[in-house]
Amino acid sequence: MALFDPDPPAPPVGARAVAELVTIETFLLARQPAEATGVLTSLLDDIALAGKLIANRTRRAGLTEMLGASGEINPQGEEQKQLDVYADDVMTAMLARGGRVCAIVSEERPEPTIIADGGRYVVVHDPLDGSSNIDSNVSVGTIFGVFERDGDASGDLQDRDWLRPGRDLVAAGYILYGTSTMMVYSTGDGVHAFTLDPEVGEFLLTWDDMRFPETPAYYSFNHASSPLWDLGVGSFVQWLNRPDTPRLSQRYIGSAVADFHRNLLHGGIFGYPAETGLPAGKLRLLYEAAPLAYLAEQAGGLGSDGRRRLLDIEPDDLHQRTPVFVGDRALVTRLQEMVEQSSVT
Question: What's the rounded Cα separation, in Å, for the pair 75 and 90?
């Protein structure tokens, strides 16, 4: 379908199709409050530009010898892919310009990057989530969150400027690199999706005010790890497969952005539980879990670590991990109830 088609097909349940041609820049400016300075709008536009550059390189990765490991290890002890390094460099370069950002927290860097003479925003991001799937040509993505420094903050930046609970986010989103490149974001007024039209080089509004459908379709858990899950998580998955319960179809990609995106469109829940030997889970709270939970709540869903709301957890470490369950509110709530029941029996 051409993005200019005046009669596009019906959107997935929970999303509203957009027929007119609206660029992301036009949309951001139109949604900007009258009293706004426009700095956050420009910042999101910078992230969109970074997404275009990363999308161009991921599309051509096999042709430009960008597949495979870089030979470096990131702060989590994980082997970096060449595209991890490239995506991180692009995000840093785009965010460091323009005087809008004072600090950048990245999965690929052990400490925050401080921007001299920067602005009032702190950006946290995973430059290329799911990068272990790159060589298999599976969808990957960039996850980001934006915090604003305290209004009276002055002097040197402190840990408190980025070790913040997700409820303090002023914007969050992701860019999905798949069969098409899509940017999904929220600034607290709903969730909106834009598709990159490579012919004109613009992100164009595809779905406005996305919501989780009332009837969920999928659950996304890695069944291979089920023997290592907490009892309550296993009970929840068994409950999903009973004949008298929703009986959702199981779909798991192993790329958090891709799994979350499909469930946002069609309804469902994505989970990465704690495991025996991995009690804190795998996903990072600050720049993966919190932004996805923020989007989930803006779309009528919920994010939880199995016991508490993800957006209420205050991180005490830059790369702190957490179990993650995000998606349909009723399903996440049910999972929490079953985890709580298992802990008292």
Answer: 19
pLDDT in tens, 30-69: 988 877 789 999 999 999 999 999 998 888 755 445 554 5
With bands split at pLDDT 50, 70 and 90, how would you rate the model's confidence at 247? Answer: confident
Query: Measured between alpha carbons, how far is 339 from 273 in angstroms, rounded to an integer?
Result: 11
Sequence-ordered alpha helix ranges (H) in 19-81: 24-31, 39-59
CB 23 within 8 A of CB 49: no
Q: What is the pLDDT averaged over residues 169-177? A: 97
Q: Which two tokens stand for residue 254?
A: 């192993």
C-alpha 1: how far from chain center: 26
Strands (E), the chain: 16-17, 69-73, 79-81, 101-106, 113-114, 121-129, 140-148, 171-177, 181-186, 192-197, 202-208, 218-220, 249-250, 268-272, 302-304, 324-327
338 has pLDDT over 80? yes
CATH number at residue 266: 3.40.190.80
pTM of the model: 0.90
pLDDT over threshold 70, residue 3: no
> What is Dmax (Cα atoms) for the chain?
60
Residues with Cβ < 8 Å from 148, sequence gap 6 or more? 120, 121, 122, 170
**Residue 238 belongs to some domain of the structure:** yes
**Torsion angle (degrees, nearest 10) of CA 166, 172, 177, 182:** 140
The first and second tokens of residue 249, run together, are 């179809």
Same domain, 193 and 222: no
- Asked if residue 310 is part of any domain, the answer here is yes
Adjacent-strand bridge partners of 311:
none
Domain containing residue 305: 218-344
Token pair belonging to 140: 């990957």
Same domain flag for 196 and 250 = no
Comparing CA positions, the residue from 197, 310, 331 lying closest to residue 268 is 331
